[in-house]
Structures are given as C-alpha cells and as structure tokens.
Amino acid sequence: MNRFLIVSVLMLLIGCSSAPRFYSGKQLPVENEKKRIFTSEDNGIDTLRNLSNGIEIVTGYASFYADDFNGKQTANGETYNMYELTAAHRTYPFNTMIRVVNLANNKTIIVRINDRGPFVDGRIIDLSLGAAIQLDMNNTGIQEVRLEIIEWGID
After folding, report:
1. Higher local confidence (pLDDT), 42 or 138
2. At 4, is the secondary structure helix, strand, or coil?
3. Potential cystine with 93: which of 18, 52, 143, 153 (Cβ 3.0-4.6 Å)?
4. Which residue, 99, 92, 111, is CA-closest to 154?
5. How far is CA 48 from CA 66, 81, 89, 155, in A?
6. Is 135 inside a domain boundary?
7. Where residue 85 sits, what CATH number does that domain have?
8. Is residue 28 part of a domain?
9. For residue range 46-88, what is the model confidence (pLDDT) as tens digits?
10. Which of 87, 91, 23 is nearest to 56 (CA)?
11. Is the pLDDT of residue 11 over 90?
12. What is the pLDDT of residues 83-129, one digit of tens each?
C-alpha cells in the first residue's frame, strides 16, 4: 500500500513538471533568411541582457489593455489574464518571446505573444496590465519601447 502511494505521488509530481521556457534549438526561415532561436542554456547568452546577432529589434509605441478584456478569450484561444506577462502583436507568431524595454526608464521585461493587436495606428504592441506595471508605464498608458525577439513562436 505504501509503495503504491509513493509511486502515485511521484507520477503526479512528474506529470505536473514543466519544460524549460526558452528551449527550442531550432531555426525558422523568415523571408529568405534564418532567425536563430536559442535556449537559456546556450553559453554566453543571458536572455534578459544579451541578444545574439540576427535577432530582430523594433522601436515604436506600446500601449496596454486590461479590465475590459480580462477573462475573455485571446486570439490564440487562451483566457486573458491581465496580470500575466503577455502581449498582443499584429503579425508575430503566437508564443514568440519578446524582450520589451521602456525607453524612458530602461526597465525591461519578457512577454509572450498570445493575442492580436494593437488596432490603433502608430502602436507596435499591446501589453498586458502586468507587463505595463513592471515597465512603469501603467500611468502614462502609451510609451516608446524597443522590442527584441528572444525566441520566435510557431503558429
């Protein structure tokens, strides 16, 4: 009986474990060129501070969305949680991991694309409220940011 209980608990714990967040090791073709997808285990790469050559970097304005969308379905089918570190982008594949830098204060976070938007001209990304708070832009609403692709998602 004790052996069955121990095995059951171990199987439950193993089944609940998650895979590393930044792990792929693949290369994806993007318009006749290859973008490198790297892992957090690559030597010399700190995903919060350093990017390898060939990773797309874009500058523009970010906004955030919160209460009106909280609990509703996102474009990839998830339920939107305004406190998670997620974002909406018009074209990047779902599950693309992006480092977002607030150019006013150099605060940095990493978000995952799980929705489509923004649908306002002149904005390049819509962040969750949780991401906006961490970037200290929740009071301004709109902020100039730099987006740095860490890992391309696969639609």
Report:
1. 138
2. helix
3. 153
4. 92
5. 25, 23, 20, 24
6. yes
7. 2.40.40.10
8. no
9. 444 444 545 689 999 999 999 899 999 999 999 999 999 999 9
10. 91
11. no
12. 999 999 999 999 999 999 999 999 999 999 999 999 999 999 999 99
